[in-house]
Write a structure and sequence with these properties.
With about 300 residues, this protein is α/β, with parallel strands linked by helices. It contains 13 helices and 9 strands. It has 2 domains: about 140 residues, 3-Layer(aba) Sandwich (Rossmann fold); about 160 residues, Aspartate/ornithine carbamoyltransferase (Rossmann fold, 3-Layer(aba) Sandwich). Helix 8 links the parallel strand 6 and strand 7.
């Protein structure tokens, strides 16, 4: 069994095999609708418990569909419905109990520490469905989407514009594993965490961190951004938005990238803040495919976890 908590926990071959298997399985499905099962049913007789301590549209639904396509079943729990979430049962005890009921656990929580604590006591694999420190499932799915449209991501350039948040940190981990260039444009105050930068340096990541959005976007194959205020943000939101105002992805910025560059956003978006509707609804935008591919990338992640 394998846990999927950080991109950096997996080696290059494991990560590549997850992406390649997602491509293969997606193409084998042909024109099946999202709720139709695959021909093989690797998750038959197995179930996945999902705990959401914060809101989710895509992760919740795409994991549910992923499990269904693989022939398994899922139970979705919100924070206020379970003892651990309400704070009246320890992670250790909850983990011991869930191990009796489920074959795999997915959790979305603020605290990365809690995910590691669950891992310590679980007898089943755990998947990180987003913490304040990372969103690895999103990034695997985005790599799948990128490669579907633009070919091998190796040596390509991804420009991340805006907040140095959890998603950008998972991209930093992915950049060295998949060998792509990552240009991050963000204000100094909102750079990715120093731990993430340290790890990137140690891994010899081809990483540029700049305050100049045009420099970051220059020659990029893909421009991406995310909400300026993440679910786990505790600071002064008004001040943060004011500082990030210059970091909007708009038509002018897209022009600095390659003429065939794509635009990505993990969603949900705050239109007219980090991205204009013109870009989000424009020809270069692939945001709906990104949301769809969450199903396919996560199926591969699940299969890798239960191996
Ligand atoms: N991108 C993403 O994880 O979306 P949700 O918050 O809707 O799950
Ligand atoms: N950075 C965002 C991602 C949402 C999918 C957040 O953590 O809220």
């Amino acid at each position: 069994m394998n846990h999927f908590i950080n991109i950096s926990d997996l080696n290059k071959d494991e990560l590549r095999s997850i992406i390649d298997s997602a491509k293969r399985k997606k193409s084998e499905r042909g024109k099946k609708s999202a709720s139709q099962p695959d021909n093989d049913q690797p998750l038959q007789g197995k179930n996945m418990i999902m705990i959401f301590e914060k809101t989710s549209t895509r992760t919740r639904i795409s994991f549910d569909l992923a499990v269904k396509q693989l022939g398994g079943s899922s139970i979705i729990l919100n924070q206020d419905e379970i003892h651990y979430g309400k704070g009246d049962e320890t992670i250790k005890d909850t983990a011991k109990v869930l191990s009796q009921y489920a074959d795999i656990l997915m959790i979305r929580t603020d605290s990365h520490k809690n995910v590691n604590e669950f891992k310590k006591y679980l007898d089943i694999p755990i998947i990180n469905g987003l913490t304040n420190e990372g969103h690895p499932c999103q990034v695997m799915s985005d790599i799948l989407t990128f490669e579907e449209l633009k070919g091998d991501i190796k040596n390509k350039t991804i420009a991340w514009i805006g907040d140095g948040n959890n998603v950008s940190v998972s991209f930093m981990e992915a950049a060295s594993k998949f060998d792509f260039n990552l240009n991050i444009a963000c204000p100094k105050k909102y750079q990715p965490s120093s731990n993430a930068i340290k790890l990137a340096k140690k891994n010899k990541t081809k990483l540029l961190i700049t305050e100049d959005i045009l420099e970051a976007a220059s020659n990029a194959d893909c421009v991406m951004t995310d909400k300026w205020i993440s679910m786990g943000d505790k600071g002064d939101k008004k001040k943060k938005k004011k500082i990030l105002k210059k970091y909007q992805v708009n038509k002018k910025l897209m022009k600095a990238a390659k003429s065939d560059a794509i635009f990505m956003h993990c969603l949900p978006a705050s239109r007219e803040e980090e991205v204009t509707s013109e870009v989000m609804d424009g020809k270069q935008s692939v945001v709906w495919l990104q949301a769809f591919n969450r199903i396919h990338a996560q199926k591969s992640i699940i299969e890798w976890c239960i191996k």
